Amino acid sequence: MKNEIGQASTKILITILVILIMIAGGILGYRMKEEQKNEEMTVAEESAIGPMEEETPQIFQGSDRPIAVMIDNHSDAWPQAGLQEAYMVYEVIVEGGETRLMALFKGVDLKKIGPVRSARHYFLDYAMENDAIYTHFGESPQASSDIKKYSINNIDGIAEDGTTFWRVNDKVSPHNAVTSTAKLLESAKNKKYKVTSREESVLNYVTDEVDLEEGQEVVSVTIPHSQLQTVAYEYDKENKVYERQARGKKQVDWDTQKTITTKNIIITFCDNYDLADTEDKGRQGLKNIGTFDGYYITNGKAIKIKCIKTDRAKQTKYQDLEGNEIKVNDGNTFVNICPTNAKVTIEGD
Fold first, then answer.
1. C-beta of residue 262 within 8 angstroms of C-beta of residue 330
2. I need a surface site. Which of 23, 146, 231, 317 has the fewest CB within 10 A?
3. Is 67:106 a contact under the CB 8 Å cutoff?
4. pLDDT at position 45, please?
């Protein structure tokens, strides 16, 4: 009798254990199915959304090949058209203490750019390092020789058919030749130049705001290129840009009359010298191969930098004093190349 009771108890216990095991297995299986379902939903959602993309700088985007245009900077040429829309503008001394500007455009549609003036050979260095189509109206003998030597893709207003460039009536010759991006692209295609480029920007643009926390404050900066041409920039704290002046006058756009501003300023101390040529017009050369002192200015601050160019066609490297490539705010940049003895004045609050 006792054996029968014991056997019955054992059977009950085994049955209970089997039931408990089945329940536990069912719960575990349910949880595994739910986890798998959640993982599949997450993958599906990520596929629908797509991978997160990093922001890219807006000032230098797309595959359009840059176009470099020589801009007249004689006082009779003021105001100029197109400077505000350029992503970079180089300013370098030419004969007579004047400076000339080379404005770089990428992926913009401008109805008027100018006044356009003649080529100078050392500007070719900066056109080459930007992989730009070089636009000018006439050329010096040195520029003419180097354009051929380096096979520069160029558009010369004097050699064009009369539709790529035109003269306007509100300025006097030779300060009144203008062009447009559409006309330049049309000419470039007719010449079988490539109009797209995969070359990276000379400057290391970033989307995160660069504030140069360790730099010195810059409310204004004055850059004397020569006794004739002094450039100044005044900081607009509200808009975090610098307003440009030349020879004591605020520089404005030809058509809109709005003040020319820039997000970034780069100063390179680099000597010029008189060329000995048969024309004896006081044309200049530029000692721009090597390592040069400079400044990077943005958002009300400045740091000292090194400007390194190893070859005429190689991109200039802009580094801080520790040898790191500087990060540049996503905005337009004026590059002022001035003599090493120029008394550049930086003023803070």
1. no
2. 23
3. yes
4. 44
110: left (phi over 0), alpha (psi -120 to 50) or beta: beta
Nearest by Cα to 120 from 312, 284, 338:
284
Residue 68: which of 93, 103, 38 has the closest Cα? 103
The Cβ of residue 312 has, within 10 Å, a number of other Cβ atoms equal to 16
Amino acid identity of residue 274, one-letter, is D
Query: Residue 283: how many CB atoms within 10 A of its CB?
Result: 19
DSSP-derived secondary structure letter, 163: S
What are the backbone dihedrals phi and psi of residue 287, each rounded to the nearest 5 degrees, phi first? -90, 75
Domains of the chain plus CATH, in order, are 54-349 (3.50.90.10)
Work out whether strand 154-156 and strand 133-136 pair parallel, antiparallel, or are unpaired: parallel
Neighbours of 169 (CB within 10 A): 6
Contacts of 215 (CB under 8 A, 6+ apart): 301, 302, 303
Phi, psi of 171 (to 5 degrees): -140, 160
- Tokens for 247? 């020879």
pLDDT digits (tens, 9 = 90+) for 202-221: 999 999 999 999 999 999 99
Counting beta carbons within 10 angstroms of the beta carbon of residue 116, is it exposed (0 to 12), middle (13 to 18) or buried (19 or more)? buried
Mean pLDDT within 298-313: 98
Query: Does an H or E element contain 250, and which?
Result: strand 249-250
DSSP 300: T
Contact 205, 328 (CB under 8 A): yes
Residue-wise pLDDT tens digits, 127-157: 999 999 999 999 999 999 999 999 999 999 9
Query: What pTM was estimated for this model as a whole?
Result: 0.85
Provide the token pair at 253: 């756009």
Note the pLDDT tens digit of each residue in 33-78.
555 555 554 444 444 444 445 688 999 999 999 999 999 999 999 9
DSSP string of 206-259, one letter each residue: ESSPP--TTSEE-SEEEEESSSS-EEEEEEETTTTEEEEEETTEE-BBTTT-PB
Q: Give the chain's end-to-end CA distance (angstroms, integer).
A: 106
